[in-house]
Amino acid sequence: MFYWLMKYVVIGPIVKAIWRPWIVGRRNIPAEGAAILASNHLSVMDSIFLPLMIDRPVSFLAKSDYFTGKGIKGWATRVFMKATGQIPIDRSGGKASEASLNTGLQVLGRDDLLGIYPEGTRSPDGKLYRGRTGLARMALEAHVPVVPVVMVDTDTMLPIGRTIPRIVRVGIVIGEPLDFSRFQGMEGDRYILRSVTDEIMVALQRLGEQEYEDVYASTVKDRLQKPAA
């Protein structure tokens, strides 16, 4: 009830009126049954606009930091995340990564839509980066299609480091579902997982025409944050 109230009465109408988001390919999202929506990640607002612009509820696995921020921005982010049904996860690795995987499989087990950012973190510069294989493992274990999703101009609206979003029209492009049933039972093969993940990233790159760099976004972020010698 809270999700629908925020989406259709409290937050949704205001956000749509201000930013006038557009969407292409909405019909590519399955009308029923479980599926993974694999999206590029340009801004914290990505997890807001996609749920607002499609008919079915979608739960994103979002880093726990989004739910613990302080001040006005932290409060606003936390409200938005809860309003759109986001699930906080610990991304510290090891057992935390396994718990995140299980959480995603639970969502898919309910025949719901699960949103994932294959890059693992926001792009630091607008490029598309190498995908993490957890997405492929979930898709193969749950036997579900993967729908590529491209967010457009959300980084212009609210880039990293900015608190107040700009009034910029943003968009969403949704591609045709990808079927990986040919790899059924091979979710334990790391080479298969990498192949599936790379296929998803190629689909995203073609759909959004982002410049692609075959390194992890987190590696680039660490490099940019490292003080000069």
Automatic annotation (TrEMBL):
CDD domains: LPLAT_AGPAT-like. Residues 35-154 form the Phospholipid/glycerol acyltransferase domain. Signal peptide: none annotated. One of its GO terms (cellular component) is plasma membrane. GO terms for biological process: phosphatidic acid biosynthetic process. GO terms for molecular function: 1-acylglycerol-3-phosphate O-acyltransferase activity. InterPro entries: Plipid/glycerol_acylTrfase. Keywords: Acyltransferase, Transferase. Pfam families: Acyltransferase. PANTHER family: 1-ACYL-SN-GLYCEROL-3-PHOSPHATE ACYLTRANSFERASE. This is 1-acyl-sn-glycerol-3-phosphate acyltransferase. It comes from Microbacterium kyungheense.
